[in-house]
Design a protein that fits this description.
This is Transcriptional regulator, ArsR family. Keywords: DNA-binding, Transcription, Transcription regulation. With 108 residues, the protein is of the alpha+beta class. 64% of the residues lie in helices and 13% in strands. It has six helices and three strands. The chain is globular.
């Protein structure tokens, strides 16, 4: 993991919002595009930068790639803490947690 790549990834407000949203659940490009009102290609470009920095990882399932935060990443830990203090980040993390809870409830 290159610190330059991490700082480049974190320099973008949309990418910080994506990280906040992925903090509690995994999502595919279409779900993220819908949530943030962006095109799927724009979200894909942001996810590519985040993945290249080692902050997220993707897993293909059928026709979709599901993204989640990279586990045990110091940059993600620090970002998660900072987003708790951020007026935009905290609501996104709560919304993401609610989606994760609904998904868990649907699997039982």
């Amino acid at each position: 993991m290159s610190l330059d790549k991490v700082f480049e990834a974190l320099a973008s407000a949309p990418r910080r919002k994506i990280l906040a949203y992925l903090g509690q659940t995994e999502m595919n490009t279409s779900e993220l595009a819908e949530r943030f009102g962006m095109s799927a290609p724009a979200i894909s470009r942001h996810l590519s930068v985040l993945e290249n920095a080692g902050l997220v990882s993707g897993e293909r399932r059928g026709q979709f790639v599901y993204y989640k935060l990279t586990a045990d990443n110091v940059a993600n830990t620090l970002t998660s803490y900072a987003l708790e203090l951020c007026p935009e980040g905290r609501p996104l993390k709560r919304e993401s947690a609610a989606i994760a809870a609904k998904r868990r409830a649907g699997k039982t």
